[in-house]
Amino acid sequence: MWNQTSLAGKRILVTAGGDGIGLEIARAFVAAGSKVLVCDIQPESLERLAKSLPDVHSCIADVSSEEDVAAMFKLVDHKLGGLDVLVNNAGIAGPTGGVETLSLADWERTLAVNLTGQFLCVRQAVPRLRKGRDPSIINLASAAGHLGMPGRAPYSASKWGVVGLTKTLAIELGRDGIRVNAILPGAVDGPRIQAVIAAKAKALGKPVEEVTRAYTTQAALGRMVTTRDIANMVLFAASDLAGNVTGQELVVDGHTQALS
Ligand SMILES: NC(=O)c1ccc[n+]([C@@H]2O[C@H](COP(=O)([O-])OP(=O)(O)OC[C@H]3O[C@@H](n4cnc5c(N)ncnc54)[C@H](O)[C@@H]3O)[C@@H](O)[C@H]2O)c1
Fold first, then answer.
1. Cα of 56 to ligand 1 centre, how many Å?
2. Burial bucket for residue 205 (CB in 10 Å: 0-12, 13-18, 19+)
3. pTM value?
């Protein structure tokens, strides 16, 4: 039972917690008795969150903006009184298409949110985590962060960057007792993957059903993973059960050896 672990009372920041995987992570931490603050760029998502999880603090912040991130951490100090766990969850799918069709603006935006956003949050978090209880950083990467992903060069490159950042920080921050791990989800069932599949089908000129089948069968288990599967791994990595786990690629993908 998660609420019997060290998570009760822990102070958690989840970026992009208004929807999707981040929302499920926030929900799971609340159920474990943690104190949670989330950010998002969608005001409507945060309004819905305030109704469903009234104890969760929230703010509008784009993780790729240095100013937004600085303001968010001031709120962390004010509302949580410190920080024990940073969950760098914000990440965008980026464009789909052969590399010669991609724009520089799309490439740069994908790296800005997925990689620079994590750097900006880590830079603010570290001095606070040094004073935290069993502190850790959990970076959302992707199965595309250790495999190639045709048609998704900016996304895959950004997520390999996340894995490199994670492994480096685990060494750098180990002496401060701060654990740093990456979580690598496979295809997660939900609206985002439907949009990704539709974009891929369009780019390849194939029926959506065919691309959906490829996404479903690429895992050894023959199914997509769920937001709950990812939240479970985040809670494990943040808890004392993972007290000696750092610098790891924690893969939650039903064993996927190649991405479609
Ligand atoms: N969904 C998948 O299949 C999948 C697979 C592997 C990895 N991931 C990774 O998991 C993480 C969460 O993915 P998801 O599917 O929940 O995403 P999502 O597209 O559903 O977005 C979740 C939330 O992120 C917010 N957001 C977008 N850009 C932001 C920004 N710049 N700053 C702050 N918030 C922002 C959105 O408003 C939304 O509420 C991402 O890092 C993603 O790359 C997802």
1. 19
2. exposed
3. 0.97
Q: Is 155 a catalytic residue?
A: yes
Distance CA(61)–CA(22), nearest Å, equals 14
Question: For residue 68, what are the domain limits?
Answer: 2-187+226-252
Q: In the prediction, which pLDDT does 260 show? A: 82
In one-letter notation, the amino acid at residue 36 is V
Evaluate: CB of 120 within 6 angstroms of ligand 1. Answer: no
| Domain-embedded: residue 16 | yes
- 10-residue mean pLDDT profile of the chain (260 residues): values are 77 98 98 97 98 98 99 98 98 97 98 99 98 98 98 98 99 98 97 92 93 93 97 97 98 95
Residue 114 CA, ligand 1 centroid: distance in Å: 9
The per-residue b/e assignment along 75-93, b for 16 or more CB within 10 angstroms, e otherwise, is bbeebbeebbbbbbbbbbb
**CA 19 to ligand 1 centroid distance, Å:** 8
- Whether 47 is covered by a domain: the verdict is yes
Which residue of the set 2, 155, 215, 236 is catalytic? 155
The count of structural domains within the chain is 1
Domain assignment of residue 246, yes or no: yes
Task: Output the pLDDT for position 4.
Answer: 60
Residue the block writes with tokens 């993957």: 193
**What CATH number does the domain containing 59 carry?**
3.40.50.720
